[in-house]
Description:
Elements: E1 2-7, H1 15-26, E2 32-35, H2 57-68, E3 71-75, E4 78-79, E5 82-83, H3 85-95, E6 105-110, H4 116-128, E7 132-133, E8 139-140, H5 150-155, H6 157-175
Parallel strand pairs: 1-2, 1-3, 3-6, 6-7, 6-8
Antiparallel strand pairs: 4-5
Amino acid sequence: MKVLAISGSLRKSSVNTAVLRVAAALAPPGVEITLYGDIAHIPAFDPDLDADGAAPTSVLAFREAVDEADGVLIASPEYAHGVSGVLKNALDWLVSCTLAFYGKPVALLNTSPRASIAYNSLKEIIRTMAGNIVEEASRVIPLPNMTITYEQIVAHPLLSEKIHSSVLALRDSIVAPTGRQS
Length: 182
């Protein structure tokens, strides 16, 4: 089972990226979580660049990664009460030209309880794109600070358990008879 993890942050020391890396490390056997690393290279959304299926190579690669995934796991910061621009831009490239997101199980991880506006906005964006938000797998992972590292998160029993249970819930939604089959 393939899960594509997407971080809405480009920061090298991003806690959102760290949480996704922890999810990959804690994934149960049979679940492969791959962090998509090229979101920064996706150009600004412009439908004119997508004429006749001739989208930029980075867009085609992103679409293919989403299409091949059985589920998607997203963690993103909130910037000025909104979804990060780089994440929203990447998602915009999926809207009009692919059915890859249609019905796909999606889990959202929010690393800050105060970042509820972007989290709820991201849920609305995914629903509008016909993605299937897995509520049992989507949750706030309240990090003690925004400088916590991957090593500290994976070693923290409560944080690692919350992340692991999100991955299990996403996995279960993918294999459930009413969800997408891998």
